[in-house]
Structures are given as C-alpha cells and as structure tokens.
Amino acid sequence: MSDAMSEQYSTRERLYRTMRLIRRFEEFCIKLVRSGEIAGGIHPYIGQEAIAAGVCAALRPDDYITSTHRGHGHVLAKGADPAGMMAELTGRVTGLNKGRGGSMHAADVSLGILGANGIVGAGAPIAAGAAWAATRAGEDRIAVSFFGDGAVSQGVVLESFNLAALWQLPVLFVCENNGYASTLTVDNAVAGTIVGRAAAFGIPAARIDGTDAEAVMAATREYADRARSGGGPALLECAAYRFDAHHTWEHKSFVRYRTREEVAEGRSRDPLLVQAELIGSETCERIDREVEEVLESARQFALESPKPDPADALDHLYATGLRPRAGVTAHA
Amino acid sequence: MPKLSYLGALSKALNDELARDPSVCVFGEDVRVGVANITKGLVEQFGPQRIVDMPLSEQAFTSFATGAALVGQRPVIEFQIPSLLFLVFEQIANQAHKFSLMTGGQAKVPVTYLVPGSGSRVGWAGQHSDQPYGLFAHVGLKTVVPSTPSDAYGLLVSAIRDDDPVVVLTPAASSTDREDVDPAELGPVPLGVGRVVRPGSDITVVAVGHLVQEAVAVADELASEVSVEVFDPRTVYPFDWAGLAASVGRTGRLVVIDDTNRFCGFAAEIVSTAAEELTLTAPPRRVTRPDGTVLPFALELDRAAQPHRDQLMDAVRGVCGLARKDP
Ligand SMILES: Cc1ncc(C[n+]2csc(CCOP(=O)(O)OP(=O)(O)O)c2C)c(N)n1
Q: Nearest-CA distance from B175 to chain A in Å?
C-alpha cells in the first residue's frame, strides 16, 4: 500500500469511526432516556452523522463551531470526550459543562466548541463574531455554524449572512437539510431555495449529498481553505434524513407527519453503511469493537460520577464568581 | 476645576479603555461619526477595525459581539434607542447571559451594552422612551444606571472590564448634566456598591439615575421638616442590599422612586424585600410610572406618566406622618 493510499485509508477509517461513535453514542443515550438516567430527552442526530463527521474532518483543532439543539454529532466530531459528554447528559459534575448544560448546551470551549444552542439559528451570529475576532487577532482560524433547514427562516441567520459577506469573514454556514423542522416540511417553510438565500448575499453555496461523508469533507475542505485564505464565507447545504423522531419525547404526543414508506426510504440510504462499504467488514468490526469499549467506559464513567450538590445550583452563574444574595446583612 | 459633562464622561471612559486594552472594540450604528456624541473621534484614533459601524442588524450584531467575546474580545455595543433592547432580549438575556452557567463556567462573555439616552426623551413617544432596567435586573444581568458624570465614567469603565455581560443604561435626562471634577480623580466605580448621596436620619429615599437629583431636591425642600437620606444604588443589579440595610437601619423608613412601570417593577422589589427583611417603623411607599405604561407623546401626558417630584414629596411626607401640603 502506498503512503498516499494509507493516508486516504486512514481518513476513511476516521470518518467511519466518528460516525459510528455518534450513532452508537446516541443509541446509548436513547436507552438512558428511556431508563430515566437522562432527564428531558434528546434530539437524535441518527441519519445525519456524515455531515458532522465530514465537516469536522476538514477542520483544524483550533477552528470554532457553533451547534444546535441536535448537537451531539457536531460536538463529538469536533473532538469532545465521549465520557465527559455522557456525564453531561446524565447531569454529573464530571460532565463537559459540569452538569449545567445538558444535551442542548454541550460545549468544550478549549476545543473551539462554542456550544450547542437551544434557540434555532442563534449560533450563526456567534460564529460570525468568532470568525471576525479570529481575523482581528491575525489568526487564520475559521468558524463553522451548523443549523437546520428551519433556521434559514430566522432573521438573525440572514442578518449574519449579510455581516459575513460584507466583511468577507472566515465563516462557513452548514445547513443540514433533513426535510423537516420538527413536523414542518421544508417545502412548506422555505420560499425559494436555501442556496438561493446565500446567493442573494453574494455568498457561494452548494447543495451536496449529506449522507456521503467523503463528499461532505471534500466540499468543506474547499470552502474552508478558501475562507482561511481570506476568500470569505460560504454555505453548504447538506441533504440528509433524520431517521428518528424530532425528539425522544415525540412518541408521547403520537404525532404522525411522515409515512412508514417515507421513513423506510429515508433510512435506506444510511450514511454509516455507505462509509462501511468503503472500508470493508474486517476494519469495520475492529472499529466497532473499539467504539463499544469507548462508550461502555463512557457510560460507566457517567453513571458512577457524582451528581451535583443542590447547594451549588448557582455556581458559574457569573464568570466573576458573583453569587446572588442569600439574605440581607447590614454593613457593620 | 474643569466641568465634566455626562456624555463627555462616557466618551472619556470609552477612550481610556480602548487605549488601555487592545481587546476593547466598539460596535453600533453611526458610531464612526458618533451621532450619539459618545464615540466621536474614536475612529480617527483607534481605526475602523475597532470602531465598527454596523448595518441595521441589531439581533445579529448583538450575538456577533457574544461570539467575539467568547474568543477574547471585549466589545462595547452602543444602542441608539432603549427599546432596541426588546429586539435583542434573546441575544442578551437568553444567549450572552446564560453562557457562563450553561457551560459550567467554561465561557465568559465580556460584552457591555451601552444605551445612552434611556427613558423619556421629550417628544420621542412610545417606542423610544422605555427604561428597561427592571427587565434585565429580573433576568439577573448586571445592570447599571449612573446618576452623575463621574459615576457614568467609573461604572462604564467597570462594566467594560467586567468578565460578564453588563447593561449600562444612561438616562436621557442626565445627558446634559455637568459636574466639577478633576479628570485625574476619575477611576472605576465598583459594580454593586451604592452610595449615600445625601445623609439624613428620618427616611431613606432610594432613587435611580436622573431621579437621584430629584430626590436630592425634594430632600432639600423638606429639610426644615424632615431629614431625608438619599441612596443611589448605582447598580440596579446586583443591588447593594447591605448599603440599603445600613441606611434603613439609621432611618427606619423607606420610599423608592423609580422611572419604570409599577407592576413587577424595580421599586416593588426594593419595597417588598425591605418589608420582608429589614425593620421598618412605617409602611414603605413607591413612586413609579403607572402599571403597564407606554409613554404617551403629548408633553403633558408624557410628564403625567413619569414619576414626579411632587409625588415623591407626598410619599415622603406620608411615610413620615407629616400632613400633606395643600396644593
Ligand atoms: C427560535 C426557535 N423557535 C422554535 C424552537 C422550537 N424548536 C426546536 S427545534 C425546532 C425545529 C428546528 O428545525 P431545523 O432547524 O430544521 O433543525 P432540525 O430539528 O431539523 O435538526 C423547533 C421549532 C426553538 N428552539 N427556537
């Protein structure tokens, strides 16, 4: 095997491993939701793993990302520790956010992960601001803002397109078009097209297959290189399908908005299987075993970690350590 | 001694902090020409990379500042009108303010939201005359309302240096104020520490922003009948409870004058906490805008909806058991 081949092979392996990690992490988490270990539930990313894996594989460790309510994939792909992440989801002090953030706010600032975000579209201006600050500091970092098709109708996202294009900021907007915003179809929500919205601001955009991790990585690399060398923002629309419910809570509300046939059809193009085919079953099995071990120890770490002391509920409220008033005490 | 103007103090604070710390930058609308008279001349000195004229995209540029702050900058946003804070409540209250706790202390967001010209500006009517400090205090954001030029300087400096988001609302009615101060004596004023503006022994009047001067005028006018202490919290949140407790400990009586709506308002909070936790010798009172006020345009109506000196006078007399003066 030539060096070039071996390098390509390791990238392929790496993409598969990231996707497998995300998939199995979430399957673990769904079980923990059902058993009550994770309070409130999660928004499963299953089916969309190729996007997080492909985008983050094209980034540098010091690049920034902002993520969404469906953020586990982005956060793990950017390098967050699965054990810290699971501890976070189960509300432990050893969690990435010390149990203060949970599923929708998971962050590891040291890895450039500026947080999953519970407000649709909210991460776009934050990423643009981080990109601006990096440029101002003379660094060649870029920022990626992940969001769904629902977010392209948020004013703040369009305002961010304008700022990013106006100042040619090194920010990459990654729209994960899974066809739905909760139960609303993209056809019923988006006038014109998603790439067209970027075009209106002079932002180059492409619509690609978001179930093909290597295609996502290649497209990201092109736009990321361009942004890094001063070429300005770009938008990548990645088409994929969300295999499961919008939220683990959904089955309780008995909503029906997708036919069985549609879901089966969507699930038939499984990004994990697409990537598995490229690397062969032996390699897959080796990686799968390794991922199981990682997740089993993550699960153990999480469940054996201490829960926070209720007395500490307001720790970290302020960066300055200010604590709200316990009661009134007069000056002497 | 040189006269320091209120707007000049804000401008000097910005200037000094920009010069002192290269991570400080200013975002806003028309900040390069300095339409609000605070950022004038800054772009010539610090360049367009640090004094950034923003498109009319308040929601984006407010969170843009959050992103920049998360990775090491210290932005100050100048808002043209106070009600824009309603437009960016999501970006301030729900994003910037929550990052520290939600990330378990990993993130800090040192952004300053400066609103020069808050409250009634004569003739600006409903959408330009809000005084939203109670909203931010309720959410738990650090919120300051300076009442003098030297406090405007010192509190803005502290807000910029603070590692948390801080809302600085400077009342429109204060913007023409001047004060005799030696510029060399200006310095940071710590957040969360109030000030006894005028000592007294019979009753404490808590007043915020431009109403501090009104309270002092009332205290002077009543001086022959009653000794009024005027307490300016300077920081609306966190409120200086210890300072108030000390004052009420001396006087035993309390009136709050507050230019925000009565229901769920700042004055309600001060009065109820005092009733719960301090020893009062008479029932407290408050003087505020009416419940749910939207400031009307016509001058007579605008004035009628704002707390007034005469109402404060009545409240002080009432709490002290003095007879109401005949009109
Ligand atoms: C601004 C805002 N509006 C509504 C919600 C409630 N909500 C959470 S996720 C969601 C759908 C988002 O759809 P999309 O952006 O396409 O992302 P997806 O869930 O498909 O990944 C909605 C409506 C919210 N969190 N924020």
A: 30
